[in-house]
Design goal:
By secondary structure, the chain is an alpha/beta fold. Helix content is about 40%, strand content about 25%. It is built from nine helices and ten strands. The strands form two sheets. A six-stranded mixed sheet has the order 6-7-8-3-9-10, sandwiched between helices. The longest helix has 21 residues. The structure holds adenosine-5'-triphosphate.
Amino acid sequence: QLEQSVLRTNSLCKSFGAIRATQKVDLHVKKDTVHSIIGPNGAGKTTLFNLLAGVFPPTSGTVIFKDEDVSGNTVNERCALGVGRSFQVTSIFPELTVAENVRLACQAKTGLGRSLFKLASRSREVNDKADSILEFMGILHLRDEAAGTISYGSQRSLDVAIAIGTEPDLLLLDEPTSGMSPDDTVRMIELIHRLAERYTIVLIEHHMNVVMSISDTISVLHMGELIAEGTPEEIQNNDLVRKAYLGES
Ligand code: ATP
């Protein structure tokens, strides 16, 4: 029996001039799993992530999300279809409060009401929803603070909260622990574990201990190509992967 994939790519290629950033990448992200993408610097992880999110179109190949070809769709169009993405804090409006940031994300999905009554009832709904997301993310106590004034670690959590606000079927997390203090990193790892109970996740992460502890499946990129895929144990014992990493330094 075939396990259901939420996201598939077929022979996905992206070139920047003469540089082939990704080459013929076939990715299958199964429902309710954490699927990590790892690889040495310059392997093409960010490029692949951007191709999944719709930041730019592929040079060739396709991205299939829930059986729909979204290769030509923009970030916003994919978001409306259910692709949620963390943006490394760049999605935050610093002058708005923490809660307002999440409400905006919730509204982006809900759309504007046609009548004032609808708008009012929706706004209550949206407030409640935003608060429950903030609670889930452990930052409800910061709801009325200006987003620009909270700690970097909390901003990263807010960034993920914004992605969740759009009710994604797939959550793309781009190095959620990068630049974090050890304490914040531990909190974020715990959070990703809890997110994994609710969402299908594609994760790019440099910390190997995070990747190994959290992933169901790991895909390894090397010079734009997928060179291995498997469980954390399989990847740790894969000679090709070891070589790719050792050859790096
Ligand atoms: P890192 O771990 O260092 O972030 P990465 O695995 O995310 O690396 P990418 O950033 O996807 O790798 O880069 C893959 C290749 O594509 C690199 O050779 C990079 O220089 C090149 N590249 C990426 N983006 C562009 C761009 N906009 N224009 C030109 N070359 C690019």
